[in-house]
Amino acid sequence: MGGLRLLALVVVTVAVVHQWAVGGGGVMGNFVFEVENKFKAGGERERTLSALKQHDARRHGRMMASIDLELGGNGHPSATGLYFTKVGLGTPTDEYYVQVDTGSDLLWVNCAGCSRCPTKSDLGIKLTLFDPSKSSTSGEIACSDNFCRTTYNNRYPSCSPGVRCEYVVTYGDGSSTSGYFVRDIIQLNQASGNLKTAPLNSSVIFGCGNRQSGDLGSSTDAAVDGILGFGQANSSLLSQLAAAGNVRKEFAHCLDVVKGGGIFAIGDVVSPKVKTTPMVPNMPHYNVILEEVEVGGNPLDLPTSLLGTGDERGTIIDSGTTLAYLPPMLYDLVLSQILDRQPGLKMHTVEEQFSCFQFGKNVDDAFPTVTFKFKGSLSLTVYPHEYLFQIREDVWCIGWQNGGLQNHDGRQMILLGDLVLSNKLVVYDVQNQTIGWTDFNCSSSIKLRDEKSGAEYSIGGHNLLSSAFNLTVGRIFMFLPVLFALLQSFSAF
Ligand SMILES: *[C@@H]1O[C@H](CO)[C@@H](O)[C@H](O)[C@H]1NC(C)=O
Ligand SMILES: *[C@@H]1O[C@H](CO)[C@@H](O)[C@H](O)[C@H]1NC(C)=O
Ligand SMILES: *[C@@H]1O[C@H](CO)[C@@H](O)[C@H](O)[C@H]1NC(C)=O
Ligand SMILES: *[C@@H]1O[C@H](CO)[C@@H](O)[C@H](O)[C@H]1NC(C)=O
Ligand SMILES: *[C@@H]1O[C@H](CO)[C@@H](O)[C@H](O)[C@H]1NC(C)=O
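^ Peptidase A1 domain-containing protein, sequence as received from the core. Prediction below:
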């Protein structure tokens, strides 16, 4: 496998799969069922929207803060390949480094007593196991708790008093994390002035990981304490903070692939203004509607079957994915248009995965740009130096990956990760169900409206990893598509 490892996490299927193993005298049965998207029906959707609006109205006048999440890491495939932030948890508060991932929902950290959790990281950050027994503010979530009941759609098996709410998340490379939910205080930084912050405490429910497998386990490469899912499910930190009246359901990121780190902020972004496209409603991910693809300014002749129709259409926007995955037909068209410009290239395969070639000249002069055009005339242009990544001097590899993600209908979805999202300010307005972006300098700052004071405060870029890290040279990190599952397992008693 060489340098390949799990890099980021994304949900492959559009439905959440609850996989329950129910045991008695050992694991006896194991059945899997797909939960239909809860908001699939049109009527449901309207109800959800009006519920959201009511929620907004109730919320009106409450004190909502802007949160500054310091970023570290670098989404470049031959750097750390991931972005992470730092949060405080528990009393007394300790700091935890968690990967930021808009493709999943849960916040979880490795916990004390964990078997096979990483204790050292090649990133040079200090890893810490969260210990609920040492935090005076922590409490376990019982299976009868509202959070557990809604997360499992009221189908937690054999829930009885004293049974705690457990979970398992399985990722595409077969690695997984499992544990149980706890409630404790999270400490975040809220904007209190221009480029100034003050602590903000909020009570949240998150996963306490006590069993890891695969690359989430003992590997020290780019190991972090856990994952912070920025999805829109009610279980996400964003939804919990919004439900507590702490924030508006809106966040933005600017991932700096040049220097590493960047901006990650929760709140109402007032500047820069970004052009937006609607999110496809009622999807578990951030999906937008792609209408056209251009290579070097020439539109590709794409069949409607590829782009889909109505709500079936969708391209997933995910910060937690390093590269970009295109269905085979689109991949072939894009690649042939790109490579036609340089007929003499000799391709070779690196890490059994990437198509690479020797090239000594400026790639931006030699290759065409690729532009994705979305509903509402929002476009996203990817430059050659972004979709090609350099692994050695004069050796470049193609970042586009062949193979889309399949949704539950077997339709191929396009997945756009850091490869195309870097060096742009991407604004996810979950409340208004839009997503937008603009080219941006991630070392500069953005302005958010602070509802407490009515003031506009700037939040700037950070880099938690300014010093060099010790990753194997030439190591290539790669996102592997995954199946996200909430799993309930019972051992015999
Ligand atoms: C935030 O929570 C921590 C841990 O419980 C506590 O020590 C601190 O005093 C709290 N800070 C504020 C501003 O409430
Ligand atoms: C990287 O490795 C060098 C030499 O082994 C060591 O001195 C240094 O502290 C390491 N840096 C980090 C960030 O771990
Ligand atoms: C999610 O939260 C919203 C707002 O609090 C609520 O109206 C809705 O019923 C919740 N959805 C589920 C599935 O629990
Ligand atoms: C969200 O939608 C509301 C109602 O349509 C609108 O008034 C408001 O300006 C929108 N907010 C943003 C940030 O676009
Ligand atoms: C980006 O912003 C930083 C901080 O304001 C500035 O120092 C730098 O020159 C800017 N870079 C570019 C390319 O404009």
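The chain has three domains: 2-63, 67-264, 274-439.
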